[in-house]
Every structure is written in structure tokens, then in C-alpha cells.
Amino acid sequence: MMNRAGAHGRPVAGDVLRLASVSKVYGTTGVPVTALKSVNLSLAPGTFTAIMGPSGSGKSTLLHCASGLDQPSSGEVYIAGQQMTFGNETELTRFRRGRIGFVFQQFNLLPSLTVRQNITLPSRLEGKRVDRQRLEAVVERVDLLHRLDHHPAQLSGGEQQRVAIARALVSNPKIIFADEPTGALDTHRAAEVLDLFDQAVREFGQTVIMVTHDPIAASHADLVLFLVDGQIVDEMARPNPATVAEEMARLGEEVARRHARSES
Question: What pLDDT does 9 receive?
């Protein structure tokens, strides 16, 4: 199996994201835990990629390292051709603000700000004018027009998730990283959010990278990457829910057999 980076993470012209031999090891004492093992990945602008794998396979770690939220133990990360520099946190924060939107699993909303203020915060921190037309269109699609002046504590979990998604979309970043973005949503709301991601890709040329456990959500992507024990072990273009579910079942059985052998 080989993704667009090729076997050794060689750059491809026009990549919006490239990971070259990225590894992540946790723990400096005792037994270290390797979360990622020499991951090579290149993604083109205007694409929608889903990342799937068993629990503990490194999906969220991959998302965090690719977005600059966590520093790899080794390897290089490039966004729009520019290498992420992890030495200066101020510069890194400014770099992320201008190029990246992130939908966190735990929402990460500021409790003292209203819904409107939370959604527009990245743009305001960057000193950019808020596109009111885009703000209204996104907020209407996630059904939050009637909640703009409320605070996070007044919202349900699903509403907070939709605020987090709107925040990532409104500032029009080059890349949107989403960690289980539909996990707190019912089927109808989840479909609307996935349609929004589709629109971001098809109409605005943004790149979406989504971690999910849901084969239906993954079927919206152009490409599904399957992660096992910190490595990309397979990929699937033009996925559908049935084939994704079958592959996840196969990988789950393979991991179970591997663990059984290691314990015997």
C-alpha cells in the first residue's frame, strides 16, 4: 500500500499537507509507548480524507501531529509547502491560526464567550474581517441562528459540537482537522455536518481530514486511511459504508489475533 507521498514521503507538487517519516513516542522513563511509526502521507488541496482504525491505533495522535497541536518525536510536517517549526510556540500558534481549523472531540469552547464570539474568535485573533455572509450561511446550516447570543453552558452537547464545527469552517482555513466531529450528533445533524464538509471541499477548495469510527461518515470522504498500531496499513478510494465496515472488521480480527499471539 502506498499513499500519495510514495514509499519514502517524497514531496508531491501542490501538496497542502505532507508528513515525512513522522513518529511519536510517549514516555521517557519506564516502557515508552510508540503512537506513530514513520508515517508518510501527502494530501492534495480540495480533498476529503477519513482516518479510521481500532481504538489506540494512533488516529488522534496523527491528527494532532499533522495539525501542529503536538510535536512529533521525529520526522517533518509541511502545510502548504511550509515546514512546521515547533521551537517557537508564538510563531507556531500564528501559523496554525492562519491556515488550520480544528474540530476537537471535547469542543474546546470558551465558556465566557457567546456562540457568535466563539465562532468568530479565530478570525478576530488573526486580525481578519469576519465574512458576515459566510458566517450566516454556516450558522444557518448547523441550525444555530437562534443560539448566537447563548453561552456554551446553555447548549446541549450536540449544539456545542455544531458550534465547534462552525468555528472551524467560518474562518475559511486551508485545512480542517476534525476529531470525531459527528460523535455527539444524531443521524440528521451528522448528515448536515458532513454535507458542510463536502461543500468546504467542493466549493471552497478546502482540505478536510477527519478521524471517525463511523463507516457512514467515512463514506463521504474521497479516501479512507486505515491505521493500526501507529502505521497506515491500508487505504480505500471511493468508499461506501459496507466496504468500510468490512475492512474495519477485518482489521479488528487481525489485531485481535496479533494480540493473542503476543500473549501466548
Answer: 44
The DSSP secondary-structure symbol of 87 reads S
Beta sheet of 223-228, edge-to-edge order: 100-103, 175-179, 207-211, 48-52, 223-228, 231-237
Domain containing residue 238: 17-263
CATH code for the domain of 190: 3.40.50.300
Sign of CA dihedral 200, 206, 207, 208: negative
Number of domains in the chain: 1
Distance, CA of 40 to CA of 207 (rounded, Å): 18
Dig out the grid coordinates for 197 from the structure: 464538509
Average pLDDT of the segment spanning 84-110: 82
> In degrees, to the nearest 5, what angle opens at C-alpha 71 toward C-alphas 69 and 76?
110
3-state secondary structure of 242: helix
Please report whether residue 238 resides in a domain.
Answer: yes
Q: Is residue 11 part of a domain?
A: no
The Cα–Cα gap between 245 and 235 comes to: 13
| pTM of the predicted structure, to 2 decimals | 0.86
Averaged over 2-24, what is the pLDDT?
Answer: 67
- Rounded distance, CA 186 to CA 79, Å? 33
Asked if residue 192 belongs to a domain, the reply is yes
Q: How far apart are CA 122 and CA 211, in angstroms?
A: 22
**What average pLDDT does the chain have?**
88
Q: What pLDDT digit, counting tens, does each position of 66-83 carry?
A: 998 899 999 999 998 888
Residue 87 lies in a domain: yes
Confidence of residue 8 (pLDDT cuts 50, 70, 90): very low
CB atoms within 10 A of CB 80: 15
